[in-house]
Amino acid sequence: MKASIQAKVDHYLELLAQLKGKVSDEGSAVRILGEIAKDERMDQMREEREGMNGEPATTKQLQYLKTLGVEIAPGLTKRQASKLIDNAAMAQEE
Questions:
Q1: CA–CA distance from 21 to each of 14, 15, 17, 18, 81 (Å)?
Q2: Distance CA 91, CA 88 (A)
Q3: pTM above the 0.70 mark?
Q4: Under a CB-based contact definition with an 8 Å cutoff, are residues 34 and 15 in contact?
Q5: Per-residue model confidence (pLDDT) at position 53
Q6: Which residue, 29, 11, 28, is CA-closest to 19?
Q7: CA-based angle 32:41:65, to the nearest 5?
């Protein structure tokens, strides 16, 4: 098992042990741990998204925007390109 995965497993097992000591049954502890894991993943996704703010759009994003027929402004960022792609894809679905 990769070290990063093992570290996460160890982290969650430690949390589970702590939760078991605070709730009346293991099922509740497992459900709470699931919610904690979801919250941690959402925090990670939010941080990744915020990190894209000033980075220039990727070559793949720019190529895809051209394929969609979207006008590309100079200095387009990853976040802006992502929004343009989402909007163009939704417009094509309609």
A1: 11, 10, 7, 5, 47
A2: 5
A3: no
A4: no
A5: 66
A6: 29
A7: 150
